[in-house]
Amino acid sequence: MEIIFYKENGDETILEISEDFYKWLALSDFSKIQKSTGIEIKTEVEEINIEAVRLENGIREKYISFFQTTILENTYPLILKLEEKSKTNLLKASSNQNSMENIVYKIKKSYEAISYLSKKENIYMEYL
């Protein structure tokens, strides 16, 4: 699964995400921010059609805010889990959705998404 950020000239940056993270996005407020529409991008070589969100008119800021909120909401529980685990086995994580491993993953991917969304040259975002 991936989120693709496009520049005006069609250059893209790909953010790889897990299927679980994608499902979480689909069930969260992320999916309610803006619906994808058909967009045609002209590159030097060809025209490509994508289903994407244009990052304009406050939409970019809404996505950034979503991921910032995710980081904030997950940082404190992560810290508590790190403190708890440091007493026994810091690196032992379960497959539980609320495991330290999954919380760290959400924080990391949300941070990466914010960094791509913050780049004004990325004008489209497609999530597959």
Q: Care to count the β-strands?
A: 5
Largest sheet data: 5 strands, antiparallel
pLDDT averaged over residues: 87
Estimated helix fraction = 40-55%
Report the end-to-end length measured between terminal Cα atoms: 6 Å
**Rg computed from alpha carbons, rounded to a whole number of angstroms:** 17 Å
Low-confidence stretches: 89-93
Strand line-up across the major sheet: 2-1-5-4-3
Give the overall silhouette.
elongated
Structural class estimated from helices and strands? alpha+beta
Q: Helices and strands, in N-to-C order? A: EEHHEEHHE
How many helices? The count is 4
**Domain module count:** 1
Q: Beta-sheet strand percentage?
A: 15-25%
What does this structure look like?
With 128 residues, the chain is of the alpha+beta class. It has one domain. It has 4 helices and 5 strands, in the order E-E-H-H-E-E-H-H-E. A 5-stranded antiparallel β-sheet has the order 2-1-5-4-3, with helices on one face. The longest helix has 28 residues. About 4% of the residues have low confidence.
Please outline what is shown here.
This protein has 128 residues and is an alpha+beta fold.
What is this structure's SSE topology?
Layout: E1 2-7, E2 12-16, H1 19-27, H2 30-33, E3 37-42, E4 47-54, H3 59-86, H4 100-118, E5 122-127
Antiparallel strand pairs: 1-2, 1-5, 3-4, 4-5
